[in-house]
Amino acid sequence: QVQLVESGGGLVQAGDSLRLSCAASGRTFSSYGMGWFRQAPGKEREFLASISKNGGHTYYSTDSVKGRFTISRDNAKNTVYLQMNGLKPEDTAVYYCAAAVLGAPMFPGGYDYWGQGTQVTVSA
Question: Closest by alpha carbon to 80, among 40, 24, 37, 3?
């Protein structure tokens, strides 16, 4: 089992950058594929990016975040990151990290563990 804690959210202006972190407990972090999702009020949880267990493969949403967001991980620190550049008001949401036993899925149902989320608010 793994516990996930996100951090790094906050209130920023359009065009700013943020780096979200997700710290995992336990000694088996490198056994999990990791993903980042977000959920805005009234909307479904949206896939943003995922990364394989050893960091060798990354996957991104083909829609609004590719080219602006970058996922990475440091297995020595049990942490996965989401670097977000060029933030827009429509990026406002609660951002979640998740851990998957199998692969690095691009859909919520593929993940086994979730963090509590961190709020990101982007003002115009």
Answer: 24
